[in-house]
Amino acid sequence: MPYDRDHWEQLWQKALREHGDKVAKRPPNAHLTSELADLPAGRALDAGCGHGAETFWLAGHGWEVTAVDFSATALAHARSTADALGPEIAGRVTWVEGDLGVWAPPLRAFELVVCLYVHVAGSVPEMVQRMASGVAPGGTLFLVGHRPIDPVTGKPTAAANQVQVSVAEAASVLTAPTWQLLVAEERPRAAAGTGVDAVICAKRVS
Ligand SMILES: C[S@@+](CC[C@H](N)C(=O)[O-])C[C@H]1O[C@@H](n2cnc3c(N)ncnc32)[C@H](O)[C@@H]1O
Predict the structure, then answer these.
(1) Torsion angle of the four alpha carbons 125, 126, 128, 134, in this order, in degrees rounded to the nearest 10
(2) What's the pLDDT tens digit per position in 49-96?
(3) How far is the CA of 70 from the centre of ligand 1 (A)?
(4) What is the pLDDT of residues 93-150, one digit of tens each?
(5) Does 17 map to a domain?
(6) In this structure, is residue 23 part of a structural domain?
(7) Is residue 47 one of the residues assigned to a domain?
């Protein structure tokens, strides 16, 4: 199954048609809120922002957020949720329709780059490198990938046919002396009650 733009457009159209109100109220990712709550605000990139829950959380914590997704439907929904949240939030977000397979952030432009649960069509290390290129010196890269197999049951997860970031592939790119790995581990996927996520948090030293 190709996880391309058309596929995501259809998924978002269905999800928003069937329960758009619930989507708008989804809480931000728990890995992200626990790891990033103490970072001083600056410029952030939310790559693959979807419905925007993390973008809103970041904007609410003072970040100026560039939110990128290739689904026009998801972006339109996120933008209208931002407007409903008010100018404090909406005014801190720039929405960008772009394909992360080819879209590269401006070099070293962000104090924080986050990329959560995005299927990678090409090489994972290349994608990590592309996201990492947007992080300013002293800034943070935060990646989360849903792992395809639940280690407890041995069964395929919802991400079974997707390629998402893994700890090993991220760590192979985020090496010293340029990077300091702060978190690189698989953690239980509490929100789903099953499965694990690869959680990677790294600081650009230079
Ligand atoms: C599973 S959702 C995750 C959304 C959000 N990051 C979160 O954690 O809830 C994956 C999102 O990535 C977007 N996406 C997937 N591949 C993409 C690509 N190549 N370029 C841009 N966006 C992409 C999809 O449209 C979707 O909104």
Answers:
(1) 150
(2) 999 999 999 999 999 999 999 999 999 999 999 999 999 999 999 999
(3) 7
(4) 999 999 999 999 999 999 999 999 999 999 999 999 999 999 999 999 999 999 999 9
(5) no
(6) no
(7) yes
Structurally, the chain folds into a number of domains equal to 1
pTM, full prediction: 0.98
CA–CA–CA angle 68, 187, 134 (5° rounding) = 30
- Confirm whether 196 is domain-assigned: yes
Interatomic CA distance for residues 195 and 35, integer angstroms: 20
DSSP 88-114: HHHTTEEEEE--TTT--PPTT-EEEEE
Q: Which atom of ligand 1 is nearest to the CA of 114?
A: 6
Composition of the chain by helix, strand, coil, percent to 5: 35, 25, 40
| Distance separating alpha carbons of residues 191 and 100, to the nearest angstrom | 25
Atom of ligand 1 nearest to the CA of 99: 20
- What residue ranges line ligand 1, CB within 6 angstroms? 8, 29, 48-50, 69-71, 74, 99-101, 116-119
Paired tokens of 179: 């990077």
Contact at 8 Å (CB) between 170 and 131? no
Structural domain for 97, as ranges: 5-12+40-204
- CATH number, domain containing residue 100: 3.40.50.150
